Amino acid sequence: MPKAYKSGRTLAMLLAVTCCFAESSPSGGDLLMVAPGIPLTENDLISGSYNGQSFILGNDLTIHLATGAVLERIGSPSSFFDFHGTLIKLDGGSIANTNSSTSHISNADIRILNGGFTDRDINFGQGVSIFVDGGTIGLGTIFSMNSQLTLEAGTLRSATQFRDTASLVMNGGNTGDVIQFYDSTDFTLNDGSVGDFLRVFNGSMTQNGGSIGFDMLVQGGMLDINGGSIGNEMNWRSSLVTIRATSYTLDGVPGAIQVGESTVIANRDGEVLLAELALGQMLEVTLEDSIIPGVDFIEGNTTVNIVRVDGGDFPLVGDYNLDGIRSPTDIDLLASAIRHGEYVTKYDLNNDGFINISDLIFFITDLVGTHLGDANLDMRVDLVDLSLLAANFGDFPRGWADGDFDASGQVTLSDLSILASNFGITPSVPSPSAAPFYVLMALSLRRRR
Questions:
Q1: Three-state SS at 164
Q2: Which of 93, 196, 230, 376 could be bridged to 69 by S-S, CB 3.0 to 4.6 A?
Q3: DSSP assigned state of 352
């Protein structure tokens, strides 16, 4: 605890403050003026005396550093110096780091104005709030332990780190390269310019405007995009990605975006559009109000095109005839694509680069939520489905509702085998019970003949 707080000195200190201060602080409390050429040091803060002025650290004190004034040797490499809520106004002045390693500061309200700056390698910890409007945060600064930075105008220099629930709100200004967020930190970009190589690891980022440079990585945590622009090469890995912007491009045109596993892209209403992408899969995203409805949800081998229509909704994945539901008609369109062998990305539902029976299985099990053999899509494989298959056995061309479960276009023994493997499955009976199946099938086929 600073000596100014010790018993017996408080009254004397208060009297000295009353006599020595020539002006009051902007908050109406005491004002400590730091003179150019006479640095204010940690020893001065501990003693409560500087250049003929006496003071007590706390919410009622403002330390004013005009151009040329310096606050130095603050916070040893092994511990934080506690300012007890003091307002530090860098009105052209600076906080210097003259320790052999990082300086540590806690419980301070810092305003950086008119070219004021903090030196490199300073760690701002618990209870620190910094407001920058025309100043600079130095190279390699660390924000930790719930500290807060608001950047209205000015510069946050390169290699700054945010850790342990620290936060940054940018309403303007700019940052250097390699700004990094870790461990439940929060970054909100309303305006301003962020440099290249932005990194967000298990944090939360919201972009409402502004711009972000080349090669951005979000790994874990959440990314919420409402507007602004990003240079090419955005990487999302194991993150929840929400795009709510009405107009969003990368570097003026769709750019390369790399998406990792367990990534979810959702529209503004929270509907999941794409999930569980393969690690390293490349995407391009464009989101606009005026895109023509019916454009394929997925375009090209390495491109996903997220579309929105004025006042409308995103197309339902698997709704190939755009009637608003997933039906046997959509399954037949997928089956036709499988038979013809031509790659159209919207049919590659499992994103493996191929259109085959695996995509049909994905449609039935993941999108519809039922099993192969469920011809009428009522979530059960039973005698109704068997009857439909029997009525169309051997016929061509036939579709899903007729009992064609292997996308061959014909109802054959292959389809019968598929139905048999799942026969008896219902919402309440998840395991097939196929013992009597072949007897029933034989009777059905005999009646058909």
A1: coil
A2: 93
A3: S
Q: Are residues 278 and 260 in contact, defined by beta-carbon separation less than 8 angstroms?
A: no
Long-range pairs, 48-53, Cβ under 8 A, ≥24: 48/2, 48/3, 48/4, 48/9, 48/13, 52/20, 53/17, 53/20, 53/21
Give the span between the Cα atoms of 206 and 31, in whole angstroms: 38
Residue 423 C-beta-side C-alpha neighbours within 13 Å: 22
Bond preceding residue 254 cis, omega within 30 of 0: no
Query: Nearest Cα to 377, choosing from 322, 427, 413?
Result: 427
Helices (H), 1-117: 10-20, 42-47
Q: What's the pLDDT tens digit per position in 206-232?
A: 888 888 887 788 877 777 777 777 776
- Each as own residue / partner, the long-range contacts of residues 75-78 (CB below 8 Å, 24 or more positions apart, any chain) are 75/42, 75/99, 75/103, 75/104, 75/105, 75/106, 75/122, 75/123, 76/42, 76/103, 76/104, 77/101, 77/102, 77/103, 77/104
Give me 414's structure tokens: 């292959």
pTM for the structure as a whole: 0.57
Asked whether the beta carbons of 137 and 117 are under 8 A apart, the reply is yes
CA angle 248, 253, 258 (to 5 degrees): 80
Question: Residue 400 in 3-state DSSP?
Answer: helix
Question: 424 with 382: CB under 8 angstroms?
Answer: yes
Distance from C-alpha of 177 to C-alpha of 170, rounded to nearest angstrom: 15
Relative to beta strand 303-304, strand 298-299 is antiparallel
| Residue 132: both structure tokens together | 């920058």
Residue 378: per-residue pLDDT: 92
Is 127:147 a contact under the CB 8 Å cutoff? yes
Q: Say which amino acid occupies 245.
A: A
- Give pLDDT tens digits for 381-393: 999 999 999 999 9
pLDDT value of residue 240: 61
Contact indicator for 165, 189 with CB cutoff of 8 Å: no
Of 193, 163, 192, whose CA–CA distance to 180 is shortest? 163
Provide Rg for the chain, Cα atoms: 33
CB-CB neighbours of 53 under 10 Å: 21
Please name the helix (run of DSSP H) or strand (run of DSSP E) that holds residue 40, with its range, or none. Answer: strand 40-41
Joined tokens for residue 5: 């707080």
Q: What span, in angstroms and rounded, lies between the C-alpha atoms of 201 and 372?
A: 40
